[in-house]
């Protein structure tokens, strides 16, 4: 017998209401932040994008993100998101910057500094450094009259909304807005540079993300390694070739290696008969096998093999941009690579 659902007492009701209040307040803050986006944001995108442009006439600057306390934790996250989406970026701790790490920042860089109050004394040395060497400074703060805002070149102003903490002290709403604004910067820059999934994969070669962004061309059995036979090859010889290559199929091609059809081990079972071995493979092959472009994602190939209505495929033909035979990708290889 199933255990009865736990009863929610008054204290649990209070906890649930507290959670809903926090989320609703922070959601409201994000709506206000969205409505406040304007020219300063566009200017920030322009200067970051221009500074990192890789041309002979433009410098190759990075975006340096800095902050202290909870804003510092958010700054680390923003730097990581930017770096992973094509904007060279890293976090510099203001305290460490005062003791030598300032040398990590060049005149070609842009500094994005986070501080809700804009008055953290730990930021002063880094602010002074950007002013001394004419390094663009972008401030993310909720105080337009703060020291940071007054000295910055561009101010990304957060709406003046109270923290979700009932004491108004713990950074909650403010840090949520900072994270969201950092995401907005990253995605806007990503879209400005028209970053493709292929380029994105360069920054994510490992883990599930890297696997899902693998191209068919990276996983396929290439043309030179395919089991190829001519259309007149008898089935006894075709089966030997299929067994030798151990790919579960043979591809039937003409003298120019243009694909005519495919014969799989599944076809072998379906056509089993006393005279099978003497028949030419062209009389049994499938003449319209499913195929996928070599530049497609491997996960697309997996979907085709497992979601084709009424048929479960174990392999797909791969064609190049000129519709020529390029290889074959197998379901088994996709699964072994963790593409699922």
Word description of this protein:
By secondary structure, the protein is of the alpha/beta class. The chain has two domains: 26-195, Glucose-6-phosphate isomerase like protein, domain 1 (Rossmann fold, 3-Layer(aba) Sandwich), CATH 3.40.50.10490; 216-336, Roll (CBS-domain), CATH 3.10.580.10. 42% of the residues lie in helices and 15% in strands. The chain has helices at 10-36, 39-51, 70-84, 94-97, 124-132, 147-151, 173-192, 197-202, 207-212, 216-219, 235-245, 265-270, 298-307, 331-336; strands spanning 63-67, 89-91, 110-114, 137-141, 154-157, 221-222, 228-229, 249-253, 259-264, 291-293, 315-319, 325-330. Strands 2-1-3-4-5 form a five-stranded parallel beta sheet, with helices on both faces. It has a four-stranded mixed beta sheet with strand order 6-12-11-10. It is elongated and about 90 Å long. The model has no long low-confidence stretch (mean pLDDT 86).
Task: Give the key terms.
single chain; about 350 residues; alpha/beta; Rossmann fold; CBS-domain; 2 domains; five-stranded parallel beta sheet; four-stranded mixed beta sheet; 14 helices; about 40% helix; elongated
